[in-house]
Amino acid sequence: MGIRYQNVAACAVLVLVMVMAEIAGICANSSTLLHSPCLERERQALVKFKASLNDSSNMLSSWHGDDCCRWKGIGCDNVTGHVVMLDLTTPFVKCRRPMWEGEYWLRSDDEDNCYLLYQQYLEATDVNSSLLELEYLTHLDLSGNYFHQSPMPVFIGSMRRLRYLSLSYTRFGGRIPSNLGNLTNLHFLDLSWNEFSRDSNINWISQLPLLEHLNMMGSFIYNKSQVDIIINLTISAPNLQFLSLADNGLSVSNLDALQNMTSLVRLDLHGNNLTSVSSWFGKFKKLEYLDLSGCGLHGPIPNAFQTATSIELLDLSRNHFDSLPSWFHKFEKLKHLFLSSNNFQGTIPVALQNITSIKFLDLFDNSFTSVPSWFIELKKLVYLNLSINKLTSMECSISSILKNMCHLKTLYITGNKLRKEFIGNSDLSTCIRHDLENLDLSENEFNNHLPSWLGQLVNLRAVDLSNNSFNGTITQNLEQLVNLEIFDVSNNYLTGSIPSSLGQLINLTNLDLSNNYLKGIIPTSLNQLVNLIELDLSRNKIDGRICIDFQKLVNLSYLDLSSNNLYGTFTVEESHPFIISKMSYLNLSHNQISGSLPEHIGHIMPKLGYLILGNNLINGSIPKSLCQLDDLSILDLSKNKISGEIPNCWKDNRKWDEINLSSNKLTGTFPSSFWNLSTLSWLHLNNNSLHGEFLASMRNLPHLLIMDLGENQLSGTITSWSANTFPSLEVLRLRQNMLNGSIPSQLCELSSLRILDLSRNNLNGSIPRCIGNLRGMTLEAPALFPTSSAAKPRNSSNRRESDWRKEDVIEVIKGRELDYIRILKLVVIMDLSESNLVGSIPDGITLLNGLHSLNLSNNHLIGKIPNMIGDMRSLESFDVSTNQLSGTIPSGMSALTSLGQLNLSHNNFSGPIPTGNQFLTFNPSSYAGNPYLCGSPLPNKCGYSHQVNGTTEFEDEDSNLDKLEKWLFYLVIAIGFATGFWGVIGTLWFKKTWRHAYFRWVEDLADTIYVTTAIRMAKLKKWMMMRSRVVA
Question: pLDDT category, 1011, cuts 50, 70, 90?
Fold first, then answer.
């Protein structure tokens, strides 16, 4: 009986399975039958629309074939085949939209990746009207594409079935068409970040009764009347739940009518000029999302918020708040709180303690100093950012935070002053699992071993411990972090070798161990990291051969092994050109790499943008294939043993920044094709054996900052440059060549010049009188090197500060040859020494009060040192030795308090040496070869006999001139006196009548004086007698 029932049950189950399978088949067939291909008329309309667009990023590459319903961004009705959706949102907008809409879950590196997508967009001067053929379209999204400020298409107002319209970031201009009011079915409207006219009429908004989402961020809402129109939507669109008027420059008075929109769920007003919060904000009982970031608010959090207890997301970042009120715990539903970039100080406020619902807390960029012990009670936290504060203590260690916040995905504490005791070493096993994916403890003062609990966080994707003082070895338990993608421990004090276990982290994309004290060889296990994109092992003590296998690391685009002790030859397999086709940055400088560069290097690394191989032992010639690289911006082959001629095949890719071929064995002439590189900023060809007239084919290089061609055999004259030839040039170094002719006065037009070195050439003529026009050598010049006002390409205009610190120029200052590297941009030097210059030192040179070093030695200069040289207050080194200068040393030189080196030797100076300040520190060698100088530190005393000898035996030109002027002065005085004296006395002597008349006049004058005096004395005596009686 039981067996029979079992058989029946089995049969029933079998029948049921067969029935279900049949139903599933029918459903599948019906689904196939329900899908209809798109209509040909609509497909043709889309093809015409595509033809009107510039699609350089291939966003529409899938738009081919007969069925347009299968094209990317197209959605069709499965029954009718009509196109109902056209979504061409750019990848950048798609990537960033979650953050704009309040879903703040992106990691920082994800956010950075968004910006990498910025260049992917469609482009057109208008929207093709062929879209009108899509009469059943309900969803249209063109966000992020570029329409060149063209007017918004009027025909969009005729697409009456639209329910969703997004044109954000499309750069439309002009007025908004008023016929948008015809789109009465719209639920979603986003016109944010366009360039509409300020006087756009937006009355049409009141005709959209079904509107639920309205985004006018950064578009055109500038005045109260426009705001009032939107606010009246409370009547015409009662279902409106999302409103954004952000970044429109509105004030509080513009927004008073907002108090009637109490049904709003999400309100975004960030980036306006509110300065204060009105009391009516408390009426928003249903508000769940409120963004008031960057509104200039200050003081404590306003009490007006305390009744808005439904808020789940509150963004008050980028204001000036300094405290949280005690009632803040009433936000029981709060999940996202942004208080970054405010004025909070001290311990994190206790008002946050009872908001246990909070998941996202951003306290970035404040002045908090301590984390309280209760902080670990916020157990639901998913995101915590305490970066860029002044944290010096934590009542709960980092490990205790991780131990209690099991759901935490992101923890950022970078940029504080925390020490080793706050790392903690407790076991993290209290959590069943740890969700932590992103950990950033960089830029603190941790000085212990790497955290021992790091290996327990098995879900970690990004770890940044850089810029601390971590020591010891890299821990061996990292192999458990199988999800790790980014590992950065750069700029620490780590020792030991690179653990081979790192090769087990196969998901690694970025590995940075730079600037530590790691030694040993590069483990071959790193070749297992097939997803690796960036590898930086620079500035360590690693030795051995370079064992990077480019055939395995096919995704590697950034490789920096510089400043180690690596050796071997630079070889690349030509038979596998694809294996390093993604390489864009290669830096092997400051090693012991030998051999020659592969001739085909430019073909197997077609994306190469940075090739930095300086300070090695590389020989051979420069491959011509480098000339044709489309992305190359920096080429540094300096300080090697490269020989032969520089190829003359360089093309302008409009990305060039620097060419450094200095200190090699290069020969031949200066390649004229260098003048084609219109964006070039740095050119170093010094210390080679180049010859010929390099300036013969010179063209304008508007962005050139440094041109160093010193220590070569270049000949010819310095061309008369115009002001437009090198308008940005700041360093011109032609030292130790074979240049002749005079220094052209047009050189004075290089107003940005800060270093000018023409020494050790065959130049003649005089120093240009206009030399004082070099404004870059004055104290009024910008402290940092300015860039040209001309439009610069992106790679040049954003030249990083650190790049200047890598540039070096060798100059002679204070009698020594110095290699200026890190402070190059702070140095101001002029060196015209060791040539055949004649004439005097121009007085205008004293206008260059920013000069640190002036060297005019070993020429044939005559005349005096300019009297106003005391105005050159920045001067640290002054050398005019071995010339024919004369006269006295200007006393004003004693005002040069920064002067550390002075050489006036082997001239014809005379007279006393100035005293005081820096002149007390110079030794006699500074004045050698000037026998008629006197005073300390020379043994010659400034006595009378010395002066006589100095003016009789060796009278110089200036002394003779002074003596002649003195005699002429006395002669003129004598002639004047004789003429005046005998003109009067002689007349009276020989003319009797005049003599009698003169004596009568003298007698009359004497009588008048006597009578007048007697009368006044009598009056004074009478007044005094009367005054004495009154007193009595």
Answer: confident
| pLDDT tens digits for range 355-378 | 999 999 999 999 999 999 999 999
Three-class secondary structure of residue 215 per DSSP:
strand
Query: What single letter denotes the amino acid at residue 960?
Result: N
Maximum CA pair distance of the chain?
182
* Residue 839: pLDDT over 70: yes
Q: Which amino acid is at 911?
A: G
- Do residues 701 and 730 lie in contact, with contact meaning Cβ atoms separated by under 8 Å? no
To the nearest whole number, what is the mean pLDDT of the chain?
A: 85
Can you give the CATH number for the domain in which 891 is found? 3.80.10.10
Counting Cβ atoms within 10 Å, is residue 449 exposed (0-12), middle (13-18) or buried (19+)? Answer: middle
Tokens of 111: 């956010």
Last residue of a domain, one of 87, 108, 139: 139
Q: How far is CA 722 from the centre of its chain?
A: 30
Residues 6+ away with beta carbon under 8 Å from 884: 860, 861, 862, 907, 908
Q: Is residue 74 part of a domain?
A: yes
Answer with the one of 90, 110, 139 that is the final residue of a domain.
139
Supply the range of the domain harboring residue 108.
40-139
> What residues contact 163, with CB distance under 8 A and at least 6 apart?
138, 139, 185, 186, 187, 188
Around 459, how many Cα atoms within 13 Å sit in the side-chain half-sphere? 14
Q: Do the beta carbons of residue 242 and residue 214 sit within 8 Å?
A: yes
Total domains in the fold of the chain:
2
Q: How far apart are CA 210 and CA 236, in angstroms?
A: 9
Amino acid of residue 531: N
Q: Is residue 422 part of a domain?
A: no
Q: Residue 395 and residue 406: Cα distance in Å, rounded?
A: 19
Asked whether residue 293 is assigned to any structural domain, the reply reads no
Residue 605 lies in a domain: no
730-741 pLDDT per residue, tens: 999 999 999 999
Q: Structure tokens of 765?
A: 């003529």
